[in-house]
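dude i think i finally got it to work??
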Amino acid sequence: MLIKHKAGLLDSSALNMDRRRFIQVAGASMAVAGAGVFTMTSAQANGGNFRLNILHINDMHSRIQEISGSDATCSPTASEEGNCFGGAARLATAIRDRRAELEAEGAPVLTLDAGDQSQGTLFYTTYRGKAEIEMMNMIGFDGMTLGNHEFNHGPDELAAMLAEADFPIVAGNVRAPADHPLADLVKDHLILEVGGERVGILGVTTPDTAFLSSPGPVTFDDEIAHLNEAVGRLQAEGVNKIVLLSHVGFVRDQEIAAEVDGLSVIIGGHSHTLLSNTVEGTPDYATLIESPSGRAVPIVQAYAFSRYLGDLELNFDADGAVVSATGDTVLLDASFEPAADVEVRIAALAGPIEELIRTPVADISAPIDGSRESCRTMECEMGNTVTDAMLAEVANQDITIALTNGGGLRASLEEGTVTLGDVLTVLPFQNTLYTLRVPGSAIIAALEHGVNGIEEGAGRFPQVAGLRFNLDPSAAPNGGRVSDVEIRSGDEWMPIDPDATYGLVTNNFMAAGGDGYSMLSSEGTDGYDTAIDLAEVLARYITDNEPFAPVIDGRINQ
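look at this
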């Protein structure tokens, strides 16, 4: 097996070795010619070569306007200085220009999205996904799979969003009731005629959506079980070039490639992984995994938030084997001029919310790091800030511990004036402050559960206030990664008592068992939803402590 679960990535030396083990593929021999590039020689390869280019994005998260270096909405000043990235208008230029180049070469091209257009800015809060779909229509996408955040406002709202799409949505492991509009809007598979060839498109959405979002009666099949069956059906129809649009994360994509035979390529999302041949410390674009029959399956992903566009070229053998996968992720910086027609439409959509976005909240004297890399793996500044704010909000109650999920923190804040739009970008989910009483044993279990997905950058990673603990990531999951949990009592720290009951403040999502925190819903008592939005709590806290500066004070010791 080629997958290195602990790091969540393929070890580079192992990857190079394993590529060289890809032999006897369809009677051919394969040799590596550089990162993500390989060549094959066989009678079939010489007789039936087909080229397909794929332009792809994932995890746009409502970044319709251009973004800053911290993935928040870019300020007018930074925009004027050319320090912004992405946004729908810049993305439109990049895709349109590249598509025109490829079409001039006679090269077939598909434009695909691996999910999570939804949630992240006031555009989604205001328009419930329809603005994002309108941008995709203007750019011209050929297909999309569903991300977990597409379900944030329930299946009815999602159906209304998808009804606006001029392109098909494919997510075959998503099971909506037969009488629900989603049943007709979400396809099991697609077969597209591209450059005279039939190309199959499959899609999968993480089954974790059941507890990561609000899917209502919609259920999710196991990805590998579904794909083994779906690939077989496409092959029975004579389709041997099969693209998977996957919203399950880079680690799971590697497992899928190793266990499902017949996939040609995986276009991934969900884990916000940057695959690149130019950015140091990233997995290769493309990362190659050996299929059960010994073929190479390229996997690609393009980070998130419209910062990058994936540009992939595939060449196929006559029997559907991919014989080369070249390309890279392209940084959408100021060298890409935003498309004028898209900018005009964005301005119109932004009009009703522009004043709200720009309303000043407070000044902060230093940046607050809320990056995914920090808040899903360690104590982070935004985690401390938000949990301190939660405790401050309930200071007059018998609440001593705050717990929130790192995945609920979606951006950093830059030094200077923070606007309401900035705060809502950090905390976009409209989650509310929730108090309850929980036994110490359940708190320990919650912490252990929270750190068990650290290899994959899972969003359940715990950010805390009022307690501290030691974390050993080298220990096996559920094998005692968390130790020496202590509770603050005044100016002193006391070992947690598993048999005692503690007052806890969290968010309503986690209190209901979201992100797998079932111990909070099953063992918590005296639960109370304050109905106060966490974004409001954060805004009030930094205002009360203006000019605010974040701290790292040893809550999670590694």
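The mean pLDDT is 90.
im so relieved honestly
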